[in-house]
Amino acid sequence: WPGVRFDLLSITSWFHPLLPAGFYNKTFLWPGWETFEPAIRPDMSRIGLIAGNGRFPFLVLQGARSLGHDVTVVAVKEEAFPELEAAAGDAGADLHWVSLGHLGKCIKILKSAGVTRAVMAGQVKHVKIFSGIIPDLTLLSVLRRLKARNTDALIAAVAEVLADHGITLID
Question: Are the beta carbons of 168 and 116 closer than 8 angstroms?
Fold first, then answer.
């Protein structure tokens, strides 16, 4: 307290019988909402985009920027379209290319950018994950604890590791 659910200055509404109709008593309060919003919702401004191939990462980037989010893009080097670099530059987003097996590097980039929420967008051929890549220690630990070698189990395990590092995977 005070917070979003309890407004300490709501006591001013007790005086409404003395004020003329249409008077909005909070008009003159200073400082404004913008001053306190980052403290109340610190994770709302920066999100991470883990980008695979296809058009979807471009749409997510555009949508997040139009909502006012700063975006840190981690593009999967073997999957994401090269045009994503230009799109990220146009949107004012940071872009980092990461090889498919380097989950630890992906987490390190997102954490250093201050990301607490991330979204996966675009296709990644999961067959490549189970063969043909050299995983880092973080991904190796994920692969070791998989209950099944399928897409759902893999995404759930990656989401769990991201959460362990303070990054919530959103949809």
Answer: yes
